[in-house]
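Consider the following input, taken from an annotated entry for Aryl-phospho-beta-D-glucosidase BglC (GH1 family) (Streptomyces capillispiralis).
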Amino acid sequence: MPTMRAARIISVLTALLLPALAAPAPAAAVPDGTVSGVESAAVSAAADWSPPLSTRGRWIVDADGDRFKLRSGNWHGASGTWTGTGSPDEDARHHAGENSGRIPLGLDRAPMAEIIAGFEEIGINSVRLPFSNEMIHDTRPVTDDAVAANPALRGSTPLQVYDAVVRELTGAGLAVILNNHTNTTRWCCGVDGNERWNASRSTGAWENDWLFMARRYRDNGRVVGADLYNEVRRDVWDDPNWGLGDDHDWFAASQRVGDRILTEANPDLLVIVEGINWTGIPVDGFPHGRPTLEPVRHLSHTLVDSGKLVYSAHFYGYTGPRHSGATGIGETTDPRYQDLTPAELTDVLDRQAFFVTAEPDRHFTAPVWISEFGVGGRGETGAAQRAWFERFVDHLVRTDADFAYWPLVGWHENGRGNGWALLHWDAAGHRMGPYDGDDWRAGAWTRLVEATGRAGRVAPVADWSMLSPDHADFVASRRMRALPDWDPGARKAVCPDGQRLVGLGHTGNRGLCSDVTAGPLGDPSGGHEVVRDERHVPPGGDWASGHTKLQCPDGHFLTGYGVRGAAVSSALCAKAPPGGITGTSGRTVWFDRSDNRGAGPKGGDFAHGHYKGQCADDEYAAGIAYTGRIGSRGTPDALYCRTLT
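Applying the prediction step yields:
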């Protein structure tokens, strides 16, 4: 039990953080208006596309290699709308008075087919469908009232309703992204027991829930993505982190569950990783801020299957890069996004997220999906809020970004209610939409969904991947994962199948892989050798005098390495097909005293703060050199680089 002083701290932090981090903002009143059907000029959502989806550089593509832009919205409710106080049976105890009944919102007011038709009419081609871990295990049937407009769902559990929603969305041609939004079925996102993937359950239980969900929809090709967790943030005592290797390490947790989903449940899914939403205490003078995707620049994911990683981020005008979004208690003097000038906003957005798509040929290059953004609708009269939304939409258009509006569905009564949703239904089933003539967002929304951008075939690009055995194995090869441990007791790093090692850090254990120039280089029949000594250094072939040289045999290339502490312990050499690599001479690339990566190296800074060595694009690494002399820690000092032909 906490002391009285500790209890006081908890109370203060909860008061500061709970209202500050909740999104979206409080509901705005909607003036009286005429209810009519949605008349959209937006493009049809159900255009032909072939699953599964994958990525090529910064683009998402379908099975034919054609760009598939996620023009998405969030259909919330299954993750919970209860605010956590009072009875969950009372509508007033739910966010904006909208009681979802533990299922996607609006099924009490409109038939599912009508709701989905509304999505298509406003230009949506995909839906982010939040769920809670609690929903998966909730055996209580939904109430008849919660599915009043969909009586066939009476007696169903929340998961069975979720199944039906997935089935109907995908049957209409829409793509569905599963989103683990909360642990418990309640409104997100404050100090509420949902701050981290393991805030209210163990990491193991969270991983098992993801494997269950990925397997459940494995036979439905239009279920295209796994959005791993929503708005990872600080709880009362602890911040999440990106790479420290502890129980709060979001990088490590998302890397591990992403690989497990691909290898154990469904290899076709996109793995979607959101950045960190908040760290620190929102009080002037205390460290605090919204890291978002900034840590990705120096530590990025390398999944076991290349072409499956998508990053995501959220932006709302009332929050800011160092502003939690609070008013009153918990409000700091930091600017909100809506306070920034257009130039400042562009700079901040690019720094926090859009650099991932803007910079090609980096270890972090990937699609970025802005999976939440939104603003009050008819009742929003604030000039700053309106200007921010217009500017943000302009940035999405300018960057040709994938996006998902929050939320798609809301309630209204007599034209009044939560104005954030794009589509609203009243208790009688009458619908209001953005094209009814009184929603100021209609112009910006049309501009967004009708924006021209990259379309058609996207040519394959070279993959660049980071290896980071900082705290544990980092084996990104399906083949090596299936084989016995090739260096017991060491931390092992292996490139994804089809890539070769091209760079190493002098210290810090980081590596860089790619398939640049050569494409997949390994022998389809497999074959590898673990090298721990100089047996393959020929007489007269001392390419690093005074150093121990772990050299691959001819016809092999470096694809991984083992480390113990900071020291190199082994080199993993993969076999190339006969005639695949014929060069037997090479050059030594020293990087023990400075960077040595050539002019204009690709791949990015894969070992930030450390010296790095890198072979040229038309070379492969065939050896690692290090020294065990006094004062040395046995870290890599040189690479032996050979030409591919």
